[in-house]
Amino acid sequence: MKLNDQELHGLKDMIVKTSSKVIDKYKELNKVETQADILFLGDSMIEYLDVKTAFPNLNVLNRGVAGATTEFILDNLSAIVGSIVPNKLFISIGSNDLVLLRSTPNEVIENVTNVFKSLQQKFPYTNLYYLSTTPVLKEGHKLYKKIYVAGRTNEENQLINKGLQNALEVINVTFINQYDALVDLEGYLTESYTPDGIHLNKEGYKIYSKEIEKYI
């Protein structure tokens, strides 16, 4: 079920408060963390990913911001990444556009493609990778938290992934399918991988990270 206007307003207020603190943290870190071979950027799928544990012995940094939309990334890119110019950049973005920007899947595809075009201008020699949208639990499941899933559906996620796989190939961005490895036999997010119907727990991130390892 989609969020009503009051619920959406409350979610946006919460994200504004938390994201501003995260950006302030990154601004401070960027004063000393000025170089990385591998950079992770994007929404909560990235912020909650423990990159040091997932990819030990690699020069890797995390610049995820929970609640980030494509619009947010474009508006705050310089503040988030500072002077870091990575060799490889992995980004998860787009799913929040469905909720916070009330975008259609086709609009999300266009939004994400535009983000990558901007990234290609800023990082012309960086290899860019898109981490696909991930599945959610079905509404009514005991773990389903409305405020986080917010009416997102697997049908929308699959439309986005299919469209972006084609669109990003045209602009030479590598598409990484994170969706299929996380679904159960019924096509929903595997229950043991999530605490709330959309975000991943440690077990979920083991699968998520394993897919990325193929490109690290």
What's the quick description here?
The chain is of the alpha/beta class. The chain has helices at residues 5-29, 44-47, 51-54, 70-81, 95-100, 105-122, 146-149, 154-170, 202-213, and strands at residues 38-42, 60-64, 88-92, 127-131, 174-176.
Structure description:
The chain has a single domain (5-213), classed as Rossmann fold (3-Layer(aba) Sandwich). Helix content is 47%, strand content 11%. The protein has helices at residues 5-29, 44-47, 51-54, 70-81, 95-100, 105-122, 146-149, 154-170, 202-213; strands spanning 38-42, 60-64, 88-92, 127-131, 174-176. It has a five-stranded parallel β-sheet with strand order 2-1-3-4-5. The model has no long low-confidence stretch (mean pLDDT 97).
Q: Main sheet: which strands, in order across?
A: 2-1-3-4-5
SSE topology string: HEHHEHEHHEHHEH
**What name goes with the CATH superfamily?**
SGNH hydrolase
CATH topology category name: Rossmann fold
Provide the β-strand percentage band: 5-15%
How is the main sheet built? 5 strands, parallel
Percent of residues in helical segments? Answer: 40-55%
- In total, the number of domains comes to 1
The strand count comes to 5
Question: Which runs of at least 5 residues are low in confidence (pLDDT < 50)?
Answer: none
**Shape annotation:** globular
Number of helices: 9
Radius of gyration: 16 Å
CATH class: Alpha Beta
**Overall pLDDT, averaged?**
97
CATH architecture designation = 3-Layer(aba) Sandwich
